[in-house]
Amino acid sequence: MKPDIDKRRGCTENKVKICTCGCEHEHPKTEPCKFCEVCEDYCESQKPYCCGDVPKPNRPAYPIPPGWQEGDQPKVPPFAPGISGEEKFKAFDKAVFEILRSSGNPKGPKMGKRKVEYLPYLAIRAKVGDHGNRPLNGVFWESPDIFITPDLAAEDAPDQPSNLGGIAKAGAPNTLWAHVWNLGRSPAYNVRVEFYWCNPSLGINGHSANLIGFTHVDLGDRNSTKAHTIVKCPETWVPTFVNDGHECLVVRVFDPLLDSLPSTQWDVRKDRHIGQRNIAVINAASPAHLELLVRTGCNAPAGEGVIHVEKVKLGEVDWLSLLKGQKNHQYEEPASIETVSGIMQPGNITKVAYKTSFKNVQPEALKSLLKQLLKYERTCDEKESLFYMHVTNLKPAECVVYRIIQTVDGKMTGGYTVIAKKD
User: Fold this and answer.
1) In this structure, what DSSP letter does residue 154 have?
2) What is residue 108's predicted lDDT score, i.e. its pLDDT?
3) How many CA atoms lie within 13 A of 275 on its CB side?
4) Mind listing the pLDDT tens digit for each residue in 246-291?
5) What is d(CA 235, CA 155) in angstroms, rounded to the nearest whole number?
6) Rounded to whole angstroms, how far apart are CA atoms 324 and 321?
7) DSSP string, 293-339
């Protein structure tokens, strides 16, 4: 509180000098006031700072800095002469207990939510509106952050894709990009971004992933303009003809030191560091026809597996906006189509390059083999199943979407999305 004039005059009469710092160090330093509490408060807090004074340290009052504090006494060394063995054991137990009490667990101090701490929070979105919160519920294999441009080698490709809804082309060079995010309070440096391809699968793990290439990038904190960016894979990807380019794509983003991969590093439902794109797009210049071998995956234990095929409303598929290149994709539900679709009973994986085709078989003849829902017993051996789709009478601007979804013991393990459209 600033003292009134009378009290300041009283201090002046007692020869307390008020520093104005206008004489370039030729004046004596201000003496602390010893005559009244009001004036002492003013002298210590309100007086002009003198450039000749020793500045106070600019640091927070809490926590207390290490070092001797007033009233501290030197501690007795635990192995000083005269201390019994029992007292040493007690001192050791007390020290261990204090560490556990103050930290909450043997691994160190308990921290708050990661987004609150000064750490990176890396993520690749599984769906529109994904902020990295895990576990996820619902569809997680339609990432809006993985892009493809066919007929373009990586060394010739620009840093950003010209078309966000590009489709892979078998037997041709393809370039990949990924949109990666840092939603943490701290910047992230030398972040590793990895690109993988997998055979069409309803459950991806490390065994089925094939590395295409990797690169590194720096990201700013979540409040900066560099919190997210699009990263190009430095290696060209050439899909095989076996799956006609319908392979799954997986991207992982992580900082090995400050935001590393957890034990669930291949599970998109539980890990924000990984994004997955399991989507096949069929252009219906003639009847839209697809025969796709889908593996059951090895990311779930043995038990009862259920695979079902569902026709999805277009309003539930955000990825169509990327495919069309605009927020309102303008695709419409088919007015009158004829469709035969379903999944066949899973069998052992064949190693031959040539697969049986039903292209010359009348679709109606396959209806008895195709199921919309089937149950099977999962064993230690991975299996594969054939998804068949034949759609006729699609008109321009019409689109139909199917999702193949697998659950094991009631838990969703993965899926694959098939889009048939006519532009």
Assistant:
1) G
2) 57
3) 29
4) 889 999 999 999 999 998 889 999 999 999 999 999 988 778 999 9
5) 8
6) 5
7) EEE--SSS-SEEEEEEEEEE-GGG-THHHHHHTSSS---B--SS-EE
